[in-house]
Amino acid sequence: MIDAQRLSNSYLFYRGRVALYAILKAMGVKDGDEVAIQAYTCLAVPEAVLATGAIPVYVDIEETGYNMEPKVLEQAITRNTKAIVLQHTFGIPAKITRILTIANEHGIPVIEDCCHSMAGKASGKVLGSFGAATFYSFEWGKPLVAGLGGALIVNDSDLNDKIKSEYKSFVFPDFSTTFKIELQYQAFNFLYRPELYWPVKKAFHLLSRLGAIVGNFSNLDCAGLKRSPEFRQKMILSAQRRLMSQLQSLEEVTKHSQAVTDFYKKEIRGPGIIHPELLEDSKAVFARYPLRVKNKVELLERAKEQNIELAEWYSTPVHPVSIDQSQLIGYAANSCPNAELRCLETVSLPTGLRVNKKFLQMVRDFFSC
Ligand SMILES: *Cc1c(COP(=O)(O)O)cnc(C)c1O
């Protein structure tokens, strides 16, 4: 498990994507370079790549899994590939040994995206300790919620020196942004529970459209991203303080996730439902528990009616950008068929501390009819 010690030595940024941006810059990634990322991800990841001026190159995921497929990565690497972002989606460890071998053969650094995984392991080692660097996010939907924020841990000492000096130029967001983030966190903390997922989500989207809260995604324009002040900012202080205190509960969060996951594994079954597979020698701690289903649209409708938290992400290969629009961020329709298929068939359940016995019973009933 990532411990408080390790995280308290990390660099804290405005968001996870800013942490990714900072490490890409420290690696010297610039205009025209390529960065390999997986399809079946969220816009935050290519946003960080585009903000450096580089091109995100989308790598398809495993045939039946949720993470980058090494064979496809091999074909995607060119002379211009300057970094690989390896995402452990939902907290499921990626094929890290194979991917590190490929990366090392080509001399390309790997950055682990641990936004869903603070405690999972592969070959007995915690995720986030394999690549040159790793980053985390602490917004709504992640294992620890601190408000907005991201952390970067650098395992490579040269890169660490670079980041250490560059971090000095990062500034705090202005008062109005800080205030919005704080209000948003308090509202989330007060309102959110799995039975209120749908109304809270709706309110969040509405407020975000009105500009009353800090939304998740800006526009898709690369020049705009390059100019965006967000990519020069640190995590707000109140979120930093919350993060440090929440790290004390990481063990509890992890245990809870495991107990909830055990319940889902045992109690949810039915025709056409496929549970996630794990690699041998790896341990997942799920940020959310994904299921592949035959009737995603119908299930989501029913979940909404019954007020059951069932998330649709990722609904597109670069969530929430529609496939039609995804050219703007360098994704070509049909280029990653496994990712596109997973988008059509995946729903996911929460594993956080607010998942209680009552909710688990509701989930069991929901899937048994
Ligand atoms: C949440 C998330 C991020 C970063 O999110 P921010 O909103 O920038 O903090 C990056 N990658 C994945 C897979 C995520 O889920």
Tell me about this structure.
40% of the residues lie in helices and 15% in strands. The radius of gyration is 19 Å and the shape is globular. The mean pLDDT is 93. Helix 5 (96-106) links the parallel strand 5 (81-87) and strand 6 (110-113). The chain has helices spanning 4-8, 16-26, 44-51, 70-76, 96-106, 157-167, 175-191, 197-210, 222-227, 237-246, 250-267, 296-305, 337-345, 357-368; strands at residues 11-13, 34-38, 41-42, 55-59, 81-87, 110-113, 121-122, 125-126, 133-137, 150-154, 282-283, 288-292, 318-319, 346-350. It is of the alpha/beta class and 369 residues long. Pyridoxal-5'-phosphate binds at residues 15-17, 41-42, 44-45, 87, 113, 115-116, 137, 139, 150, 216.
Tags for this model:
single chain, 369 residues, alpha/beta, 7-stranded mixed sheet, 3-stranded antiparallel sheet, 14 helices, 40% helix, globular, binds pyridoxal-5'-phosphate
Task: Tell me the major beta sheet.
Answer: 7 strands, mixed
User: What series of H and E elements makes up the topology?
Assistant: HEHEEHEHEHEEEEEHHHHHHEEHEHEH
Helix content: 40-55%
Gross geometry: globular
Mean pLDDT: 93
Low-confidence stretches: none
How is the largest sheet built, in terms of strand order? 1-10-9-6-5-2-4
User: What is the count of DSSP helices, taking H or I runs of 4+ residues?
Assistant: 14
The quaternary organization reads as: single chain
Structural class: alpha/beta
| Residues in β-strands, percent | 5-15%
Radius of gyration (Å) = 19 Å
Bound molecules: pyridoxal-5'-phosphate
Distance between the termini: 37 Å
The strand count comes to: 14
